[in-house]
Amino acid sequence: MSMEFELQHICTQSGARCGxxxxxxxxxxxxxxxxxxxxxxxxxxxxxxxxxxxxNLILANTYHLWLQPxxxxxxLNGGVKPFMRWDKALLTDSGxxxxxxxxxxxxxxxxxxxxxxxxxGATLHLTPEDSIDIQHVLGADIIMAFDECPPxxxxxxxxxxxxxxxxxxxxxxxxxxxxxxxxxxxGIVQGGxxxxxxxxxxxxxxxxxxxxxxxxxxxxxETKAEMDDMLAYLSGHxxxxxxxxxxxxxxxxxxxxxxxxxxDMFDCVLPSRNARHGTAMVHGxxxxxxxxxxEADLSPLDPHCDCFVCRQFTRSYIRHxxxxxxxxxxxxxxxxxxxxxxxxMKEVRQAILSDRYSDxxxxxxxxxxxxxxx
RNA sequence: GGAGGGGUAGCGAAGAGGCUAAACGCGGCAGACUGUAAAUCUGCUCCCCCUGGGUUCGGCGGUUCGAAACCGUCCCCCUCCA
Length: 374
Fold this sequence. Notes:
The protein has helices at residues 47-53, 62-67, 71-76, 80-84, 96-101, 128-138, 156-177, 195-208, 224-235, 252-260, 270-276, 308-312, 315-323, 327-353, 357-367, and strands at 3-10, 17-23, 26-30, 32-35, 57-61, 89-93, 106-108, 113-116, 123-126, 142-144, 184-189, 213-215, 244-246, 265-268, 279-282, 285-288. By secondary structure, the protein is of the alpha/beta class.
Protein backbone atom coordinates (compact mmCIF):
# COMPACT_ATOMS: atom_id res chain seq x y z
CA MET A 1 0.00 0.00 0.00
CA SER A 2 1.41 3.36 -1.02
CA MET A 3 -0.38 5.14 1.75
CA GLU A 4 -1.74 4.12 5.09
CA PHE A 5 -3.76 6.24 7.45
CA GLU A 6 -3.27 5.73 11.15
CA LEU A 7 -5.91 7.34 13.33
CA GLN A 8 -4.07 8.14 16.54
CA HIS A 9 -6.44 10.04 18.72
CA ILE A 10 -9.91 11.48 18.85
CA CYS A 11 -10.27 14.53 21.07
CA THR A 12 -12.64 13.67 23.90
CA GLN A 13 -13.70 17.27 24.19
CA SER A 14 -14.52 17.91 20.53
CA GLY A 15 -14.36 14.72 18.50
CA ALA A 16 -11.62 16.21 16.29
CA ARG A 17 -9.14 13.70 14.91
CA CYS A 18 -5.38 13.39 14.98
CA GLY A 19 -3.39 10.86 12.98
CA UNK A 20 -0.57 10.07 10.61
CA UNK A 21 -0.54 9.43 6.89
CA UNK A 22 2.23 6.93 6.25
CA UNK A 23 3.59 7.17 2.71
CA UNK A 24 6.61 5.66 1.04
CA UNK A 25 7.96 9.19 0.94
CA UNK A 26 7.56 9.86 4.63
CA UNK A 27 5.01 10.29 7.40
CA UNK A 28 2.61 13.18 7.46
CA UNK A 29 0.85 14.23 10.67
CA UNK A 30 -2.84 15.09 10.45
CA UNK A 31 -4.74 17.36 10.48
CA UNK A 32 -2.49 18.75 7.78
CA UNK A 33 -2.49 21.70 5.45
CA UNK A 34 -0.94 21.04 2.03
CA UNK A 35 0.62 23.92 0.11
CA UNK A 36 -0.28 23.97 -3.56
CA UNK A 37 2.34 23.60 -6.28
CA UNK A 38 0.10 23.58 -9.31
CA UNK A 39 2.78 23.62 -11.98
CA UNK A 40 5.30 21.51 -10.07
CA UNK A 41 6.28 24.56 -8.08
CA UNK A 42 5.00 26.14 -4.90
CA UNK A 43 5.24 29.59 -6.36
CA UNK A 44 8.41 31.44 -5.30
CA UNK A 45 9.77 28.71 -3.00
CA UNK A 46 12.57 26.19 -3.40
CA UNK A 47 12.11 22.54 -2.33
CA UNK A 48 14.16 23.15 0.82
CA UNK A 49 11.94 26.07 1.74
CA UNK A 50 8.82 24.04 1.01
CA UNK A 51 10.04 21.42 3.47
CA UNK A 52 10.38 24.11 6.11
CA UNK A 53 6.85 25.39 5.65
CA UNK A 54 4.99 22.14 5.00
CA UNK A 55 4.52 18.76 6.61
CA ASN A 56 6.24 17.23 3.59
CA LEU A 57 3.07 16.76 1.59
CA ILE A 58 2.15 19.11 -1.23
CA LEU A 59 -0.24 19.18 -4.14
CA ALA A 60 0.35 19.45 -7.88
CA ASN A 61 -2.08 19.64 -10.75
CA THR A 62 -2.84 17.13 -13.47
CA TYR A 63 -4.53 19.62 -15.74
CA HIS A 64 -1.65 22.06 -15.83
CA LEU A 65 1.19 19.54 -16.05
CA TRP A 66 -0.58 17.54 -18.74
CA LEU A 67 -0.79 20.67 -20.88
CA GLN A 68 2.59 22.06 -19.91
CA PRO A 69 5.23 20.71 -20.09
CA UNK A 70 3.27 17.60 -21.12
CA UNK A 71 3.59 14.01 -19.97
CA UNK A 72 6.52 13.22 -22.29
CA UNK A 73 8.73 15.71 -20.54
CA UNK A 74 7.56 14.51 -17.13
CA UNK A 75 8.39 10.93 -18.12
CA LEU A 76 11.77 12.07 -19.39
CA ASN A 77 12.43 13.53 -15.95
CA GLY A 78 11.26 10.40 -14.18
CA GLY A 79 7.99 11.82 -12.81
CA VAL A 80 6.93 15.04 -11.14
CA LYS A 81 8.86 14.45 -7.95
CA PRO A 82 12.29 14.00 -9.56
CA PHE A 83 11.35 16.75 -12.04
CA MET A 84 10.89 19.32 -9.28
CA ARG A 85 13.38 17.72 -6.88
CA TRP A 86 10.71 17.00 -4.31
CA ASP A 87 11.50 13.78 -2.48
CA LYS A 88 8.62 13.96 0.00
CA ALA A 89 4.95 13.08 -0.39
CA LEU A 90 2.90 14.44 -3.26
CA LEU A 91 -0.79 14.53 -4.12
CA THR A 92 -2.10 15.35 -7.58
CA ASP A 93 -5.49 16.80 -8.27
CA SER A 94 -7.39 15.22 -11.13
CA GLY A 95 -8.17 18.24 -13.25
CA UNK A 96 -11.80 18.03 -12.19
CA UNK A 97 -11.74 21.44 -10.56
CA UNK A 98 -10.58 23.06 -13.79
CA UNK A 99 -13.76 21.77 -15.38
CA UNK A 100 -15.51 24.04 -12.94
CA UNK A 101 -13.17 27.02 -12.82
CA UNK A 102 -12.85 27.18 -16.61
CA UNK A 103 -16.55 26.57 -17.06
CA UNK A 104 -17.03 29.21 -19.73
CA UNK A 105 -15.00 27.13 -22.15
CA UNK A 106 -16.10 23.59 -21.38
CA UNK A 107 -18.62 21.01 -22.43
CA UNK A 108 -19.36 18.14 -20.06
CA UNK A 109 -20.39 14.82 -21.56
CA UNK A 110 -20.64 11.32 -20.15
CA UNK A 111 -17.32 10.39 -21.71
CA UNK A 112 -15.49 13.34 -20.20
CA UNK A 113 -14.94 17.05 -20.69
CA UNK A 114 -14.25 19.01 -23.84
CA UNK A 115 -12.62 22.34 -23.28
CA UNK A 116 -10.31 24.86 -24.85
CA UNK A 117 -6.73 25.07 -23.66
CA UNK A 118 -6.47 28.33 -21.74
CA UNK A 119 -3.06 29.04 -23.27
CA UNK A 120 -3.12 27.70 -26.83
CA GLY A 121 -6.87 27.77 -27.48
CA ALA A 122 -6.72 24.18 -28.76
CA THR A 123 -9.83 22.08 -28.25
CA LEU A 124 -9.04 19.16 -25.95
CA HIS A 125 -10.88 16.28 -24.36
CA LEU A 126 -10.20 14.82 -20.92
CA THR A 127 -11.81 11.64 -19.61
CA PRO A 128 -11.64 9.99 -16.19
CA GLU A 129 -9.37 7.34 -17.70
CA ASP A 130 -7.09 10.03 -19.19
CA SER A 131 -6.85 11.75 -15.82
CA ILE A 132 -5.80 8.52 -14.08
CA ASP A 133 -3.33 7.64 -16.83
CA ILE A 134 -1.76 11.07 -16.56
CA GLN A 135 -1.65 10.86 -12.77
CA HIS A 136 0.09 7.50 -13.05
CA VAL A 137 2.75 9.18 -15.13
CA LEU A 138 3.00 12.13 -12.75
CA GLY A 139 3.66 9.64 -9.98
CA ALA A 140 2.16 11.24 -6.88
CA ASP A 141 1.59 9.19 -3.71
CA ILE A 142 -2.06 10.19 -3.59
CA ILE A 143 -4.13 10.79 -6.70
CA MET A 144 -7.69 12.04 -7.08
CA ALA A 145 -10.74 10.83 -8.94
CA PHE A 146 -11.87 12.93 -11.88
CA ASP A 147 -15.02 14.73 -10.77
CA GLU A 148 -17.26 17.59 -11.76
CA CYS A 149 -17.45 20.53 -9.38
CA PRO A 150 -20.65 22.41 -10.22
CA PRO A 151 -21.53 25.80 -8.72
CA UNK A 152 -22.77 25.36 -5.16
CA UNK A 153 -26.20 26.72 -5.93
CA UNK A 154 -26.88 24.70 -9.05
CA UNK A 155 -30.44 23.47 -9.26
CA UNK A 156 -31.30 20.15 -7.64
CA UNK A 157 -31.98 18.37 -10.91
CA UNK A 158 -28.68 19.39 -12.43
CA UNK A 159 -26.82 18.61 -9.22
CA UNK A 160 -28.35 15.15 -9.02
CA UNK A 161 -27.41 14.40 -12.59
CA UNK A 162 -23.91 15.77 -11.99
CA UNK A 163 -23.37 13.78 -8.80
CA UNK A 164 -24.51 10.57 -10.47
CA UNK A 165 -22.06 11.21 -13.28
CA UNK A 166 -19.27 11.97 -10.78
CA UNK A 167 -20.02 8.63 -9.12
CA UNK A 168 -19.84 6.81 -12.48
CA UNK A 169 -16.61 8.65 -13.23
CA UNK A 170 -15.22 7.61 -9.82
CA UNK A 171 -15.95 3.98 -10.71
CA UNK A 172 -14.20 4.40 -14.05
CA UNK A 173 -11.23 6.03 -12.32
CA UNK A 174 -11.00 3.12 -9.94
CA UNK A 175 -11.11 0.63 -12.82
CA UNK A 176 -8.50 2.59 -14.74
CA UNK A 177 -6.34 2.66 -11.64
CA UNK A 178 -6.64 -1.11 -11.24
CA UNK A 179 -4.81 -2.84 -8.44
CA UNK A 180 -1.84 -0.49 -8.58
CA UNK A 181 -0.33 -0.31 -5.12
CA UNK A 182 2.11 2.46 -5.77
CA UNK A 183 -0.49 5.22 -5.63
CA UNK A 184 -3.64 5.70 -3.54
CA UNK A 185 -6.76 6.92 -5.31
CA UNK A 186 -9.19 9.10 -3.33
CA GLY A 187 -12.87 9.53 -4.18
CA ILE A 188 -14.53 12.95 -4.10
CA VAL A 189 -17.93 13.68 -2.56
CA GLN A 190 -20.02 16.24 -4.43
CA GLY A 191 -23.66 17.32 -4.12
CA GLY A 192 -23.59 21.04 -3.41
CA UNK A 193 -25.97 22.05 -0.61
CA UNK A 194 -28.17 18.95 -0.91
CA UNK A 195 -27.61 16.55 1.96
CA UNK A 196 -29.40 13.66 0.30
CA UNK A 197 -27.17 13.96 -2.74
CA UNK A 198 -24.07 14.31 -0.59
CA UNK A 199 -25.09 11.25 1.39
CA UNK A 200 -25.85 9.25 -1.73
CA UNK A 201 -22.49 10.23 -3.23
CA UNK A 202 -20.61 9.36 -0.06
CA UNK A 203 -22.37 6.01 0.35
CA UNK A 204 -21.66 5.02 -3.24
CA UNK A 205 -18.01 5.97 -2.90
CA UNK A 206 -17.66 4.13 0.42
CA UNK A 207 -19.19 1.12 -1.28
CA UNK A 208 -16.30 1.30 -3.79
CA UNK A 209 -13.88 1.36 -0.84
CA UNK A 210 -11.39 4.13 -1.56
CA UNK A 211 -8.36 4.60 0.71
CA UNK A 212 -9.45 8.17 1.35
CA UNK A 213 -12.41 10.49 0.77
CA UNK A 214 -12.40 14.10 -0.27
CA UNK A 215 -15.14 16.66 0.06
CA UNK A 216 -15.33 18.79 -3.03
CA UNK A 217 -17.59 21.60 -4.07
CA UNK A 218 -17.26 23.59 -0.86
CA UNK A 219 -15.65 26.96 -0.33
CA UNK A 220 -16.83 27.95 -3.77
CA UNK A 221 -18.93 30.94 -2.81
CA GLU A 222 -21.41 29.51 -0.32
CA THR A 223 -21.74 31.03 3.13
CA LYS A 224 -19.73 29.90 6.14
CA ALA A 225 -22.93 28.62 7.70
CA GLU A 226 -23.66 26.50 4.63
CA MET A 227 -20.15 25.06 4.63
CA ASP A 228 -20.15 24.38 8.38
CA ASP A 229 -23.56 22.78 8.15
CA MET A 230 -22.52 20.42 5.37
CA LEU A 231 -19.27 19.47 7.12
CA ALA A 232 -21.13 18.77 10.34
CA TYR A 233 -23.54 16.57 8.41
CA LEU A 234 -20.90 14.67 6.46
CA SER A 235 -18.60 14.11 9.41
CA GLY A 236 -21.23 11.90 10.94
CA HIS A 237 -21.25 9.60 7.95
CA UNK A 238 -17.65 9.36 6.76
CA UNK A 239 -15.61 6.23 7.55
CA UNK A 240 -13.58 6.67 10.72
CA UNK A 241 -10.49 4.84 9.55
CA UNK A 242 -9.98 6.70 6.27
CA UNK A 243 -8.50 10.17 5.80
CA UNK A 244 -10.95 12.97 5.08
CA UNK A 245 -9.77 15.68 2.76
CA UNK A 246 -11.59 19.01 2.44
CA UNK A 247 -10.50 20.35 -0.92
CA UNK A 248 -9.66 23.97 -1.54
CA UNK A 249 -9.88 25.27 2.00
CA UNK A 250 -7.15 27.32 3.58
CA UNK A 251 -8.47 30.32 5.49
CA UNK A 252 -7.37 29.87 9.12
CA UNK A 253 -10.94 30.08 10.33
CA UNK A 254 -12.00 27.36 7.89
CA UNK A 255 -9.12 25.07 8.84
CA UNK A 256 -9.91 25.35 12.52
CA UNK A 257 -13.60 24.76 11.91
CA UNK A 258 -12.98 21.97 9.42
CA UNK A 259 -10.87 20.08 11.93
CA UNK A 260 -13.67 20.44 14.45
CA UNK A 261 -15.84 18.62 11.93
CA UNK A 262 -13.37 15.78 11.60
CA UNK A 263 -11.37 16.84 8.56
CA ASP A 264 -7.79 15.52 8.28
CA MET A 265 -6.42 17.16 5.16
CA PHE A 266 -6.71 20.54 3.48
CA ASP A 267 -5.14 22.28 0.53
CA CYS A 268 -5.52 25.81 -0.70
CA VAL A 269 -3.86 28.49 -2.77
CA LEU A 270 -5.04 31.22 -0.40
CA PRO A 271 -1.90 31.56 1.75
CA SER A 272 0.45 31.61 -1.24
CA ARG A 273 -1.75 33.74 -3.47
CA ASN A 274 -2.58 36.29 -0.79
CA ALA A 275 1.11 36.45 0.01
CA ARG A 276 1.90 37.43 -3.55
CA HIS A 277 -0.82 40.04 -3.30
CA GLY A 278 0.65 41.59 -0.18
CA THR A 279 -1.52 40.14 2.59
CA ALA A 280 -0.03 38.26 5.53
CA MET A 281 -1.85 35.81 7.75
CA VAL A 282 -1.16 36.78 11.36
CA HIS A 283 -2.43 35.91 14.79
CA GLY A 284 -5.76 37.63 15.18
CA UNK A 285 -6.48 38.02 11.47
CA UNK A 286 -4.73 39.40 8.45
CA UNK A 287 -2.26 42.17 7.78
CA UNK A 288 -2.13 43.93 4.43
CA UNK A 289 1.54 44.75 4.66
CA UNK A 290 1.55 46.82 1.47
CA UNK A 291 -0.68 49.41 3.17
CA UNK A 292 0.78 52.81 3.93
CA UNK A 293 0.21 52.38 7.63
CA UNK A 294 3.20 50.00 7.74
CA GLU A 295 5.57 52.36 5.94
CA ALA A 296 7.60 53.06 9.06
CA ASP A 297 6.54 50.08 11.16
CA LEU A 298 9.63 48.39 12.58
CA SER A 299 7.81 45.39 14.02
CA PRO A 300 7.75 41.96 12.34
CA LEU A 301 4.80 40.82 10.24
CA ASP A 302 3.49 38.81 13.17
CA PRO A 303 5.08 39.39 16.58
CA HIS A 304 3.90 35.92 17.63
CA CYS A 305 5.57 34.15 14.72
CA ASP A 306 9.07 32.69 14.88
CA CYS A 307 9.63 32.07 11.17
CA PHE A 308 12.86 33.39 9.71
CA VAL A 309 10.99 36.23 8.03
CA CYS A 310 9.45 37.43 11.26
CA ARG A 311 12.72 36.95 13.14
CA GLN A 312 14.63 39.38 10.99
CA PHE A 313 12.53 41.60 8.70
CA THR A 314 10.37 44.61 9.52
CA ARG A 315 6.96 45.41 8.10
CA SER A 316 8.56 48.59 6.85
CA TYR A 317 11.07 46.63 4.76
CA ILE A 318 8.56 44.12 3.41
CA ARG A 319 6.18 46.92 2.45
CA HIS A 320 9.05 48.57 0.64
CA UNK A 321 9.73 45.35 -1.28
CA UNK A 322 6.10 45.23 -2.42
CA UNK A 323 5.91 48.89 -3.33
CA UNK A 324 9.09 48.64 -5.36
CA UNK A 325 8.12 45.40 -7.04
CA UNK A 326 10.95 43.34 -5.63
CA UNK A 327 10.52 39.57 -5.96
CA UNK A 328 11.89 39.01 -2.47
CA UNK A 329 8.69 40.47 -1.04
CA UNK A 330 6.61 37.74 -2.69
CA UNK A 331 8.99 35.10 -1.40
CA UNK A 332 9.13 36.32 2.17
CA UNK A 333 5.38 36.64 2.47
CA UNK A 334 4.74 33.27 0.84
CA UNK A 335 7.17 31.66 3.25
CA UNK A 336 5.57 33.35 6.23
CA UNK A 337 1.97 32.53 5.30
CA UNK A 338 2.71 28.85 4.72
CA UNK A 339 4.76 28.69 7.90
CA UNK A 340 1.90 30.37 9.72
CA UNK A 341 -0.52 27.64 8.63
CA UNK A 342 1.99 24.93 9.44
CA UNK A 343 2.27 26.29 12.97
CA UNK A 344 -1.48 26.70 13.25
CA MET A 345 -2.00 23.05 12.35
CA LYS A 346 0.71 22.02 14.77
CA GLU A 347 -1.14 23.81 17.56
CA VAL A 348 -4.36 22.22 16.38
CA ARG A 349 -2.85 18.74 16.65
CA GLN A 350 -1.47 19.47 20.11
CA ALA A 351 -4.85 20.67 21.29
CA ILE A 352 -6.52 17.52 19.95
CA LEU A 353 -3.93 15.24 21.54
CA SER A 354 -4.47 16.93 24.88
CA ASP A 355 -8.28 16.74 24.55
CA ARG A 356 -8.87 20.47 24.63
CA TYR A 357 -9.71 21.25 21.04
CA SER A 358 -13.08 22.82 21.81
CA ASP A 359 -11.28 25.29 24.05
CA UNK A 360 -8.76 25.90 21.32
CA UNK A 361 -11.50 26.69 18.82
CA UNK A 362 -13.20 29.06 21.25
CA UNK A 363 -9.94 30.86 21.94
CA UNK A 364 -9.22 31.08 18.22
CA UNK A 365 -12.63 32.54 17.48
CA UNK A 366 -12.26 35.07 20.27
CA UNK A 367 -8.80 36.11 19.14
CA UNK A 368 -9.99 36.51 15.56
CA UNK A 369 -13.31 38.15 16.47
CA UNK A 370 -15.28 35.41 14.79
CA UNK A 371 -18.80 34.82 15.96
CA UNK A 372 -19.02 31.39 17.47
CA UNK A 373 -21.93 29.73 15.75
CA UNK A 374 -21.03 26.16 16.57
C1' G B 1 19.71 87.94 -33.48
C1' G B 2 16.62 84.56 -37.02
C1' A B 3 13.28 80.08 -38.08
C1' G B 4 10.41 76.33 -36.17
C1' G B 5 8.17 73.23 -32.11
C1' G B 6 6.16 73.15 -27.27
C1' G B 7 4.15 74.48 -22.10
C1' U B 8 -2.69 70.04 -19.89
C1' A B 9 -3.97 67.17 -12.97
C1' G B 10 2.17 63.97 -8.80
C1' C B 11 4.73 62.18 -13.74
C1' G B 12 4.08 60.89 -19.04
C1' A B 13 0.44 61.96 -22.63
C1' A B 14 -4.53 62.78 -25.50
C1' G B 15 -7.88 66.73 -26.41
C1' A B 16 -7.91 71.87 -31.03
C1' G B 17 -14.94 76.28 -29.47
C1' G B 18 -20.26 73.41 -26.01
C1' C B 19 -21.01 66.00 -25.26
C1' U B 20 -14.38 68.17 -20.62
C1' A B 21 -13.14 68.22 -13.89
C1' A B 22 -10.51 66.92 -18.78
C1' A B 23 -9.21 60.06 -22.45
C1' C B 24 -5.21 56.69 -21.58
C1' G B 25 -0.71 54.95 -19.09
C1' C B 26 2.41 55.29 -14.78
C1' G B 27 2.64 56.52 -9.79
C1' G B 28 -0.41 56.86 -5.23
C1' C B 29 -4.52 55.04 -1.80
C1' A B 30 -7.85 51.21 -0.63
C1' G B 31 -10.58 46.51 -1.37
C1' A B 32 -10.91 41.46 -3.11
C1' C B 33 -8.57 36.74 -3.31
C1' U B 34 -10.36 29.40 -0.54
C1' G B 35 -8.91 21.46 -5.14
C1' U B 36 -3.82 28.69 -8.85
C1' A B 37 -5.50 31.03 -16.80
C1' A B 38 -3.93 35.09 -10.46
C1' A B 39 3.73 39.05 -8.83
C1' U B 40 -3.73 39.22 -10.45
C1' C B 41 -8.38 41.72 -10.46
C1' U B 42 -11.74 45.86 -8.87
C1' G B 43 -12.57 50.80 -7.08
C1' C B 44 -10.83 55.71 -5.90
C1' U B 45 -7.07 59.38 -7.06
C1' C B 46 -7.95 68.83 -8.36
C1' C B 47 -10.43 71.10 -3.67
C1' C B 48 -14.78 71.28 -0.35
C1' C B 49 -19.60 71.20 4.50
C1' C B 50 -19.24 65.85 -1.69
C1' U B 51 -26.48 62.38 -4.97
C1' G B 52 -24.31 69.18 -4.35
C1' G B 53 -20.75 73.22 -4.67
C1' G B 54 -15.85 75.61 -5.82
C1' U B 55 -11.47 76.45 -8.61
C1' U B 56 -8.49 74.45 -13.25
C1' C B 57 -5.29 73.12 -18.67
C1' G B 58 2.30 78.67 -18.19
C1' G B 59 0.74 84.40 -16.77
C1' C B 60 -2.29 88.52 -18.09
C1' G B 61 -5.88 90.69 -21.34
C1' G B 62 -9.43 89.89 -25.27
C1' U B 63 -13.27 87.47 -28.90
C1' U B 64 -17.76 84.45 -27.88
C1' C B 65 -24.17 82.91 -25.28
C1' G B 66 -19.99 79.48 -24.15
C1' A B 67 -12.65 78.76 -24.39
C1' A B 68 -7.79 73.91 -22.28
C1' A B 69 -9.05 74.87 -27.36
C1' C B 70 -9.59 81.29 -31.27
C1' C B 71 -6.80 86.43 -30.96
C1' G B 72 -3.02 89.76 -28.51
C1' U B 73 0.88 90.06 -25.26
C1' C B 74 4.43 88.43 -21.73
C1' C B 75 7.27 84.35 -19.33
C1' C B 76 9.64 79.58 -19.76
C1' C B 77 11.50 75.01 -22.44
C1' C B 78 13.38 72.27 -26.96
C1' U B 79 15.51 71.91 -32.08
C1' C B 80 17.92 74.20 -36.15
C1' C B 81 20.40 78.61 -38.52
C1' A B 82 23.73 82.92 -37.54
